[in-house]
Amino acid sequence: MCPFCYIGKRKFEKALAQFPGKEHITVEWKSFQLNPELVNNSGQSIHEYLAEHKGWTLSYAKQLNEQVSGMAAAVGLEYNLDKAVVANSFDAHRFVHLAAQHGLGDAAEESLFRAYFTEGKDISDREVLAQLGAGIGLDAEEVRRTLSGNTYAREVQRDIAEAAALGARGVPFFVIDRKYAVSGAQPEEVFLKALQQSYNEQAATDNNGNACSIDGDCA
Known about the structure:
By secondary structure, the protein is mainly alpha-helical. 56% of the residues lie in helices and 4% in strands.
């Protein structure tokens, strides 16, 4: 639900597409909630929610959302924030964990981002999630069964605890090889540099069993 996460996803994807060792990179999505106590309120606009939650004026919240929509457009995304449905994302995170078990974690994230930011769908609605699942190749009934209980709730909480341990205080937050963190929707070159440095170090370790830095200093 953070608008910078979808933007950050696109920037990272563009960086990864340029990275020479991209076939060796595995992307794993982790759960994180900025506001775990959020109560679903379909009658409240995202502008009203942000104004109330952040202590902003309504006009300021609208202005910022217009600016971020422009940032999204710059990377090829369409944001319709006037239609966004304020919703708790916990079940959506459980949905992603289910999708990941079928090798569809990234597809699930993409469908959720599009549903929330572009299509104005309620991503806390389990029937909406079942439909999104069917759209990416999951069995809709399996999605319904999964979300009817507490399946993957523990995994979501574990991800959130792991993020805290790694120092994540906001999103997007990218961790590469559990060594390098990139916080925010950074320019493509920032992601490329972090990927290259981590990749070089891993290659050096694989070659001689020792850890080496990108500058050539080896332990």
